[in-house]
Design a protein that fits this description.
heterodimer, A: 145 residues, 5 helices, B: mainly alpha, 2 domains, 0% strand, globular
Chain lengths: 145, 168
């Protein structure tokens, strides 16, 4: 390739006026052929630009599983609900169990107990008063003897 | 869209995204992270990806934006991205840096303004058409040509200056 043509291409290149195919000609010239002495200073640019394209990413891309995030939170809420439910149920069943009838019986028992107590209290009060009747008997006996 | 379909769609341009990210962020690790992040975003919006004319162009725009944001947040917190690109075995740039002034070319490219860096990368490394680059960068062809010309000239002028300095 005659260097005159390359020089022209170079001028256009630095003005940003070359097409992709013209730039390829430049890259190929500076990377493969014997470069004319007065153009050798441009060589590193085109070798560098070509080399820059050879670089590869070495790290694998990691992608999260589909909807894994949503799935997890869903499981968390289920687990939390189960724990709460078990706790409540455990507390509930640890309490003594009465049927409706038994509960009514218990209430009735408490009521009648109160009533009995009340009755006996008042009976005691009445019994105290009866001592006066005894006194009357004693005095009557004294008089009629 | 299944994982395999998605991977088949995006893997062909993974390296392009990586090279662009590395051009902007310089650090290999940062660039790998950027690519991972962009793919995650694409994966989350995978239902929409079929609607785009070119998923590749869309991904490149995303990568560019992500990397520039990353740079900005680093600068805002007064941190510089420190690159520790040590493993030379896998690093082709490093292997070639042995010859000539290629290393110098990469160094000069690092000093270019972000926009010029990106344009140079997309045109001279990845060989996209001006119309494609204009769409990716949300710009027009004239502006792209101007930025590209400036970038190429800066690389040339800085190189020749150093080259002559080395000789004399």
């Amino acid at each position: 390739m005659e260097s005159v043509k390359i020089e022209k291409l170079l001028d256009a290149y630095f003005e940003g006026a070359t097409s992709l195919s013209e730039e390829k000609v430049l890259r190929d010239y500076f990377n493969n052929e014997m470069v004319a002495d007065h153009l050798v200073q441009y060589k590193p640019i085109f070798i560098g630009l070509k080399a820059a394209k050879e670089e590869r990413s070495t790290k694998e891309i990691e992608l999260p599983e589909n909807h894994s995030k949503i799935n997890k939170t869903w499981w968390y809420s289920i687990a939390a609900m189960l724990i709460v439910a078990l706790g409540v149920a455990g507390f509930y069943f640890s309490q003594p169990q009465y049927t409706q009838e038994e509960k009514e019986a218990l209430v009735a028992f408490e009521k009648s107990k109160d009533a009995m107590l009340f009755l006996s209290e008042n009976l005691n009060k009445g019994a105290e008063r009866l001592t006066f009747v005894d006194q009357f008997e004693i005095t009557k006996d004294k008089i009629f003897e | 869209m299944t994982k395999t379909e998605f991977t088949n769609l995006v893997l062909p341009f993974k390296d392009k995204l990586y090279r662009l990210a590395k051009r902007i962020l310089v650090s290999q690790d940062e660039a790998e992270d950027a690519v991972q992040e962009v793919f995650l975003k694409l994966w989350r919006g995978k239902e929409k990806i079929a609607n785009y004319k070119s998923p590749e162009a869309f991904a490149i725009t995303m990568t560019k934006n992500y990397c520039l944001d990353r740079l900005k947040s680093k600068q805002a917190s007064n941190l510089k991205i420190v690159h520790s690109n040590y493993q030379t075995s896998e690093n082709i740039e490093k292997n070639i840096e042995a010859n000539d002034g290629v290393e110098m070319v990469f160094k000069i490219m690092e000093t270019l303004p972000e926009q010029q860096k990106i344009v140079l990368q997309l045109r001279d490394v990845e060989q996209f058409e001006f119309s494609e680059i204009a769409k990716m960068l949300d710009s027009n062809e004239t502006a792209i040509r101007v930025a590209l010309s400036r970038a190429r000239k800066t690389v040339r002028d800085t190189m020749i200056k150093k080259y002559n300095y080395g000789i004399s």
